[in-house]
Amino acid sequence: SFTKQSPLPFYRKDNALTCQSCHMPREPLAADAKDPGAKDNQLATHRWLGGQTLIPAYYHYDDQSRRTAEFLQKGFDGKGVLNVDIFALERENATSPNTILAPLGLVPATFSAGDTFIADVVIQNKGIAHSLVPEQRDFYEAWVDFTVKDASGKTLVESGFLQPDGHLDPSAHSFTNRLVNIKGELNGLHEIWHNRVLAYNNALQSGRSQLARYRFRLPKDLKGGFTLTATVRYRRFNQHFIDFAMDQKPGQHFPEPIIDMASDTQTFRLGDNPVPADDAQKYSPGAQPRMRWNNYGIALLDALQYEAAVDAFQHVAKLRPDYADAYTNQAIVQIAWERYADAIPNLEKTLQLLPGDPRALFYRGMANRFFGKTDAAIADFQAMLQKYPRAKDGLRELGFSYFQQHNYAAAREQYEKLQAIDPDDLAAHYQLAIIYRRLGEKEKSAAESAKYKDQKDDPPASVYALEFLGKHPEIAAESVAWHQHDLTGDPRKPGKIEYHYIPGAGGR
After folding, report:
1. What CA–CA distance (Å, rounded) separates 105 from 266?
2. Could you tell me the sign of the dihedral formed by the alpha carbons of 308, 312, 318, 322, in that order?
3. Pick from 86, 222, 219, 214: which is nearest to 158 by CA?
4. What one-character DSSP code corresponds to residue 193?
5. pLDDT confidence of residue 338
6. Closest Cα to residue 86, out of 147, 143, 151?
7. pLDDT tens digits, residue range 417-465?
8. How is 64-98 classified by DSSP, letter by letter?
9. DSSP H helical segments within 8-53, as ranges?
10. For residue 437, which of 105, 235, 365, 501 sits 20 to 30 Å off, Cα-Cα?
């Protein structure tokens, strides 16, 4: 969505942006400064603000530290990087189905001491053109700190706390991955030469939302009310790695700056909680009801909760019937759910509201191809590519549609266009290996086959991931799309990740 190279992201941007747009925006020169590169008395900043919080703190570059923290919270445009929304509470009922209170702040609710709830926290990556966190995800540490406090401010339960030695609560909801070696052990010092498989990857992709769920119980002796707070926190390196990198002695731990990137708080009293009369109190920061439901639907889709995701997007359509993407989003879920017949009417509704919309055309092409309407699918993909000629998904699906028709020359053209944009596209390597062979170009076929074999996932390697997760039940749930963090026990006594090193790896 940031580069406007594809129509498929959930949210549309008005203007195309580059890396420099976010990280090198133009800033006015100081009153007494002159620079031949300045335009209109402005110069592209070379601070390259981003996620590097440690170096400016270490060298006491206080202005850079302040600007970096502001960038992580407000983004390049001041509109914020993330949106955190405590969207729903699910009340557990012993004798009937659970009751869902959503969206919080817009529905009346009644609470009693001793009640057990599951809180749905939606985290939206709205202001980053790449994932949170970006590449080398095992180095970074971004996570959700979730607390339940009583009326006096005492913390009743917490997920995402820091332990006395600086290490993060291992069962926290974190936006990271786990690199595992052939011994089924964690590569805790980024020993990439021993990487065998990812146990999981929880990075929050650009324009998407993620759902963190927390189960907690209100104490039976609770008085007054309670407050829920969810905060996304960030530090440049995890504690284990930075202690190694800074050569800390046993028992010593190197301190790092921690930035609170975004937060949401919901406060309730025991008894009845009517809907606030003041609209300003109803919404999480920057999130109107339609957007709250939309973000929730996206998070449910990525958590593979298809029925609930469709329901969320239907709420969006009810709140704003002229919002075309509400119908496309329902269709996306239905296609993932393999309910293609249900998807078509929603896509037709979108195209009534936005004739020729390339996003709807792409997904209608996908549905048409399932029904064997390959010519119609090709027409839809071609219409999409006329407006977005560099859309990789469009080229990939158009190439496959031609391949299904045995039109290998046309399929080859699309996949070669795809490789010109992304030389590492795995589907292009696989399909071109077949297409070149059928066109009699054996050397090219062999080359593409070799690239595919080199870059594809290795299915047997999942054994090492399962071995690692089996050893660490405190984090195993993070590898499951739909899970919850149970805080009804003692959350401050989690298991610990053990670090093991292969001789010669350079670790301690």
Report:
1. 8
2. negative
3. 214
4. G
5. 95
6. 147
7. 999 999 999 999 999 999 999 999 999 999 999 999 999 988 889 999 9
8. HHHHHHHHHHH-TTSS-SEEEEEEEEEE--SSSPP
9. 19-23
10. 365
